[in-house]
Amino acid sequence: MYKNKIIKMSLAIVTGLTLTPNAFADDASEIAALKKEVAELRKMTQALLKHTQITNKKSEEKIAVLEETQQTLIDETSNIQTGFTSVSDGHSHSGMGTAASKVYYSKSPLSIGGYGEMMYSSQTGDSTNEDKIDFYRFVPYIGYKFSDNIILNTEIEFEHGGVTDDGIAQGGAVVLEFFYLDFLFNDNFNLRAGNFLVPMGLINEKHEPTLFNTVQRPDTERFIVPSTWGEAGIMAYGDITEGVSYNFAAISALKTATNGSKWIRNGRTGTERQTDPGFAMVGRLDYTGVNGLLLGTSTYLDTDMRISDIHLDYKVGGARAYGIYTDVSRSNAQNIAPDAVDSASGGYLNLSYDVLSLTNSTHSLPVFIQYEAYNPEDSRADGTSGDATKITTLGINYFPHEQVVLKLDYAMKEKANIKDDIASVSMGFIF
Description:
Blueprint (H helix, E strand, L loop, with lengths): L1 H16 L3 H6 L1 H55 L19 H4 L4 E16 L4 E16 L4 E10 L13 E12 L5 E8 L22 H4 L6 E12 L2 E9 L26 E9 L5 E10 L2 E12 L2 E12 L2 H4 L4 E14 L11 E15 L8 E13 L2 E12 L2 E13 L1
Antiparallel strand pairs: 1-2, 1-16, 2-3, 3-4, 4-5, 5-6, 6-7, 7-8, 8-9, 9-10, 10-11, 11-12, 12-13, 13-14, 14-15, 15-16
Helix pairs in contact: 1-3
């Protein structure tokens, strides 16, 4: 319709233009009519152009939507075929690390993830002079969704290169760290059954190498809150209200009829077969109502022992502060040995700043300082005590990718009059 009118009006204009100047002069009304028709022609031409542009734009949008839908279908089909889902930053389920949480956010029933770390350290000082390379950990996570509400999650850990030489352990180990089923009901109440990480401290549930700054995990969370610490049992967890979460579990108890500086760590039962297991309870509360803040407390209780902690992790801009304080008491120490430990305590604080946050870089470069003081033998049944250990660590991390970290730190360690310096470098990753 537009095109026919344009042709007719164009012919009228051409016809008008072929008139003699005298004709134009003689008929002013005809000139006015011609101008009107030219204006109408211009208006119609603009409308036609606009209509064409809108039509083209809608076509382009439809093509873009179709291409995006096609790519989504390809990605989802690939996920279903391979069981692979990428680690999504910030996705943590019930306080666990991002890689350990993959199965909960996977579009595929099968999820495969994990983490690894290797390191080199050089220790000099009063106790020893030693250089060491350690293929410390390679840890696959394997998860499976039976349905959206029933989920299996497992962690298998190969430590120090695993088991070698015809099955004879050479300082390594293969351990099933956790193995549980989750029954998801709603945001406020869910159940977990099996062998799972005990919800205490900061590192025990979030022990992937990209989540803490030092090369080694803090000693407080190795010897007092003895990560990685898993027990068999059943746990309820969820949100009390927005920003406040809870965990409450009935679990197998630590085997604490041991002594010395590793008395708590050596009490972990893990997934090994147990006879006459003890009984314990664990409770945890966390507040995350402020953006970037985790503030909480947790307590473990069995018939003879209590472990309590308060923990903090706060990120704002490029700055981060995290740490815990924990103390332990044991009521039956005198029944174990005259010098059995009956209390322990410790804590650390790590302060860091990502200097690349001041630039447009997509990488991260946190520089940190950590101070730690702990004593796994604060007091003994006979009234004596062990020596406290103090460690100041300076270091730097480089993240060329959010799932890959290179670490360098220098730890100055002091226990009684024994001083050691430890320089360490490591690489770690999650997937």
